[in-house]
Amino acid sequence: MPDKYDVIVVGAGPAGYVAAIRAAQLGLKTACIEKWTNAEGKGVNGGTCLNVGCIPSKALLDSSHKYHETKTDLTNHGINVGDVDIDVKAMIGRKGKIVKQLTDGIAGLFKSNGVTSLFGTGKILAGRQVEYTDHEGNKQILATDNIIIATGSQPIDIPVAPVNGNTIIDSTGALELTETPKRLGVIGAGVIGLELGSVWNRLGSNVVLLEAMDDFLAMMDRQISKEAKKVFTKQGLDMRLSCRVTASEVKGNEVVVTYQNSEGKEKQEVFDKLIVCVGRRPHTEGLLAPDCGVNLDERGFIFVNDQCATNAPGVWAVGDVVRGPMLAHKGSEEGVMVAERIAGQKTQMNYDIIPNVIYTHPEIAAVGKTEEQLKQAGESYNLGIFPFIASGRALAADETDGMVKMIADAKTDRILGCHIIGPSAADLVQQVAIAMEFGSTAEDIGMTVFGHPTLSEAVHEAALAVNGHAIHIPNRKKRK
Ligand code: FAD
Ligand code: NAD
Fold first, then answer.
1. Is 456 within the bounds of a domain?
2. What SS3 class is residue 141?
3. 192, 232, 356: residue to mutate for ligand 2 pocket, most atoms within 8 A of CB
4. Is residue 350 assigned to a domain?
5. CA dist list (Å): 56 to 50, 91, 98, 264
6. Largest Cα–Cα distance of the chain, in whole Å?
7. Which among 135, 361, 452, 469 is annotated as catalytic?
8. Residue 171 CA: distances (Å) to CA of 62, 116, 349, 427
9. Are residues 195 and 141 in the same domain?
10. I need a surface site. Which of 38, 161, 190, 432 has the fewest CB within 10 A?
11. Cα(159) to centroid of ligand 2, in Å?
C-alpha cells in the first residue's frame, strides 16, 4: 500500500465508486474502502444500488411485468398462451445473477482504472487520515490529501413495526421472498412501496398500502399523482391514505397491524408479510471521529456546500449521505463533480435538472418544477398536455394510460418542467432533461423532427400544446 493517497473514497455505492473511477482517470492515486459483504461473507462493491436497490428491484419489476403481461394482457393482441406459471425462486435467482455480474463489474472497472479496492470499514480521523479496518479486524491508518465520504443511507425503522426479517421486512427482505405472500401489507406508499408492492401484486398477492399522508405521491405534479392513483387502483393495489399504523403484533406466521384510518377509527388487518418502507436515513454511525471536523446538518446528513465540500478542509461528501434526493444518478454526478474539483477543474453540477422516476407500469417520471411549485412561487407559465390515448404508437402497443405534461415559462417559453406517466416515461423524460440542460424552449422541441410512430411524439405534441400548436389533440389555447 502506498504511504499516501491523493484520494480515499469511503463507500463504493454509485456515488463512491463513480467518484473513485473518475479520480483515478484524472491521474489521482485513489483507494476506495467498502464494508458490504455478500451472503458468502465476501466483500462486494456497488452499495445499496447494485446489491439491494435500483438493480435488483428493476430485475423483479421486469420479471413480474413479463409474467403479468403474459397472463393477462397478451389476449388483447390475439395471443393465447394457456396456463402461465411463475417460479419465484428462479426469478429471485436471476436477480441474484444480475447483481453478481454488475458488482463483479465494478471490481473490473476499479482494476482497469487503477483504483485500489479495500474491503472493510473506513473511519474519518482528523488531519486527512482514514482508519481502515479490514474484515479480519486489522486496523491501519491511511494518509491522504482528500477524503470523499459516500456512505449512503439505510432504511428508517419505526417502533410500531420493528423489522424481524421474517414477517416484518424492509425493502431488502422484500427482494428476497421466495414465495408470493397471499396477503402483503406495505407501510408507506412512497417509491419503494409502489415499486415492490407492484412486483408482488403482479404475482398474485393482495397488496394493501398504508400511507400516513393524505396526499398521494406528494413530491410529484398533482395531475400526474392523481392519474397514478387511478391507474394503480385499477391494477388492484389497495391504497389507504391518511392511515397511521399504531401497533403490530406477530402471531405465528402472520402479523396483525393496527392502524387509525382517515376517519380516526381504529382498524386491524392481518398480513402474511409486512414491508416497512417509510424512507431512508443517512448512514453515519461510527464514521466520524469526534475531532475530524465534519459537521452534520439538523437532519443528520453530512453538511456540505453546493460543491459537496464539508466543513473539514480536504473532506468531501456525496450521495445519499448528503442533502438532496436519494437517487443513484444524483450521487454519481456529485462523485464526478468532486473528483474533477479535486483535480483542479471547476465542474458544477446542475441540481435543478435531476430526473426522478418511479418504475411502476406505467412508469412515472419527472424533471424540473411541478405546476404546484410554480404556483407557489408566483411564476407565470404555460402548459401543454398530451394523453397517450392519442398516440398511435401507444395504441399499437396497447399502452394508452397516462400523459405527458410540459410546463414552460409564460414570457420566455423556456421549459421549466416535464411530468410523465405512461409507457417508457423514464426514457422520454430524459429527452426533456437534455433539452432543459441546453436551455431549450417548448418551441425548440416543437420545431424538432420526431420519428413516427414513436412514443416520443407525445413529448413533441405536449411541447407544441404549450403554445397552442398541437396537431393530434384539440388545443386548450388557440394561437397562431
Ligand atoms: P449507497 O448505495 O448506500 O452506498 C454506500 C456504501 O457505503 C455501501 O456499500 C456501504 O456498505 C458503504 N459504507 C457505509 N459506511 C461505510 C464505512 N464506514 N466504511 C466503508 N464502507 C461504508 N435510486 C435510483 O436512482 N433509481 C432507482 O431505481 C432506485 N431504486 C431503489 C430501490 C430500492 C429498493 C432502494 C432501497 C433504493 C433505490 N434507489 C434508487 C436509491 C439508490 O439506491 C440510492 O440513492 C443510491 O444507492 C445511493 O448511492 P450512495 O453511493 O450514496 O450510497
Ligand atoms: P419515500 O419517502 O419515497 O416514501 C415513504 C412513504 O412512507 C411516504 O409516502 C411517507 O409519507 C410514508 N410514511 C412515512 N412514515 C410513515 C408511517 N409511520 N406510516 C405510514 N406511512 C409513512 O421512501 P421509500 O419508499 O422508503 O424510499 C426511500 C428512498 O429511496 C426514496 O425517497 C428514493 O429517494 C429512493 N428510491 C428511489 C427509487 C427510484 O428512483 N425509482 C426507488 C426506490 C427508492
1. yes
2. strand
3. 192
4. no
5. 7, 11, 8, 37
6. 74
7. 452
8. 17, 31, 30, 25
9. no
10. 38
11. 17
Position 405 in a domain: yes
* 129 and 195 co-located in one domain: no
Atom number in ligand 1 closest to CA 14: 51
Is position 65 annotated as part of the catalytic site?
A: no
Assess whether the C-beta atom of 329 lies below 6 angstroms from ligand 1: yes
Mean pLDDT of 43-66: 98
Q: Which of 158, 186, 191, 257 to mutate to test the pocket of ligand 2 (most atoms within 8 A of CB)?
A: 191
What atom in ligand 2 is closest to the CA of residue 218?
9
CA of 213, nearest ligand number: 2
367 and 462, same domain (yes or no): yes
User: Which CATH number do you get for residue 227?
Assistant: 3.50.50.60
Claim to verify: residue 272 and residue 298 sit in the same structural domain: no
Q: How far apart are CA 235 and CA 214, in angstroms?
A: 20
CB burial readout 128-145, b (16+ within 10 A) else e: bbbbbeeeeeeeeebebe
Confidence of residue 476 (pLDDT cuts 50, 70, 90): confident
The whole-chain average pLDDT of the chain stands at 97
Coil vs helix vs strand at 352: coil
How many angstroms is it from 214 CA to the middle of ligand 1?
28
Q: Which of 278, 294, 319 is the last residue of a domain?
A: 278
Q: What would the pLDDT profile of 80-122 be if each residue is shown by its tens digit?
A: 999 999 999 999 999 999 999 999 999 999 999 999 999 999 9
- DSSP letter, residue 162: -
Domain boundary among 262, 278, 294: 278
Closest atom of ligand 1 to 196 CA is 34
Q: How many domains does the chain have?
A: 3
351 within domain boundaries = no
**In CATH, what number is assigned to the domain containing residue 377?**
3.30.390.30
Residue 328: band (very low, low, confident or very high) from pLDDT cuts 50, 70, 90: very high
302 lines ligand 2 (CB under 6 A): no
Task: Encode pLDDT of 335-384 as tens digits.
Answer: 999 999 999 999 999 999 999 999 999 999 999 999 999 999 999 999 99
What confidence category does residue 3 fall into, taking pLDDT thresholds of 50, 70 and 90?
A: confident
Q: Tell me which ligand sits closest to the C-alpha of residue 357.
A: 2
Q: Are residues 271 and 320 in the same domain?
A: no
Domain match, 394 and 410 both: yes
